[in-house]
Specification:
Length: 203
Amino acid sequence: MTAAGVRQIIAFTGTQLAGLRPGDGSVLWRYPWSTSFNANAATPVVAGDYVFLSSDYGSGCALLHLGASGEREIKANPVFVKYNKLMRNQFSTCVQHGDHLYGFDVPGHGGSGILKCIHLRTFEEKWSTRDLEKGSLVRAGDRLLVLTQSGTLVLVPATPEGYSKVSEVQVLSGSECWAAPALTGGLLYVRDNEEIVCLDLRN
């Protein structure tokens, strides 16, 4: 990303979020963020000069603003920090659509998931549902393709107005379908621990 006029790589480790110079890997800034197991699995979401991060295992979520601090220095300023509430991504990354984030909040150290929509800049929760077990998701236009951990694929509109389920189909029979779906050219790839399936969504 480029923030405060500086091109940088955002790296999420087990204990911190950091900005690195692409040329030599030197650290531009750090923001401490640890969990019970040093398990920061979800990828940070970059939106302009803002970075959203989220973790399960008693952590929560935060929105950081990256701004200039002195000559050629950058500081990560927390805008919102919600410790152990609002959005606790266990293994799947939130997806952004407009000003909103959609993702699974997993309270209770890896328990059942709550699919939520929150406003990126205000952290206001727009809606939540326990209709689906935890899983991962990808955005396709103005819809979400949600893959539950037991292999059910669900189509959900990506709107802050409310949750609804358009359709669902069982596409995998294994457990722990934790890998994020991959969508390219109308083809959707999903997998569990035993197989990978390609679904043609072009028609």
